[in-house]
Amino acid sequence: MILTLIALALAAPPATVVEPAIVPTIPPAVIDNSLEVAGDPLAAEQVRTRMFIAVDVNGQGPFRFLVDSGADRSVVGSALAAQLALPVGRAVRLQGMAGTARVATVRIDSLKLGTSTMTGIAAPALPERYLGAQGIVGIDALADQRLMFDFDRKTITVQDARRPEAVGGGDEIVVLARRRNGQLILTAASVGGVPIYAVIDTGSEVTMGNLALQARLFSRARPPRPIVLTSVTGQTLTANLSTLSSIRIGGVDIGNVAVAFADAPPFRLFGLEKQPAMLIGTDVLEAFRRVALDFRGRRVRFTLRR
Known about the structure:
globular, six-stranded mixed barrel
């Protein structure tokens, strides 16, 4: 998900589209040890911790897109949609970090990342000044893909998840995740001994916690450090910023993490508003050397720094 932190001049989560759907029962998460992404590394531009890649739209490009595991729909910039004369589709209700808005969609016949091509995408069109890119590659285009974010080499590898995968090395931790609305939700995570649900959100540069987690961590009143967040729709949300001593993911501790706490709509969308939960942004993910996501297999691999 994409957001802009005005008070701190940071970027964070994109919007998700609310569509009528029945959320299926999801199995419990377990630890696994066999996920490897092998494909074509794409040169990625890294802005702070988020990474952007070159994407072809309807055979034209390349264009600068953000790969976002926290957005359930791909998004295209309004100016790019006009430039490519993309056909206008029906309006949808867009669920952003700060609220909902009615926006028009456009039809994308093909979206190509490296050797992988996704077809038939209905993408909301939003101003580039809020996206921070010419578009966003969301879950609708990633459902059958594996992605590997290499923060050291600044590359993103894209691979069809239906292809066989190799066995990884000993410096990696693989977690089998749940899926809800397409997002990968980990249960092998905790903060200060409090078990949490963690949503992997590669489009956010800031990690966010819900109010249920804030209440568990801070039983006594604390002076808030308010910040203002601006969503892709231009709406704003006030959050409280705190620095946590550590976050534990898959048995690995990451120290001194700044977390913005707010009653953000995506937590309700994922069914996580009443239990401690986080949207894990790239500010935390970059603590690992590589992070690989398998949306089809519901697995996430964290490669440790040596």
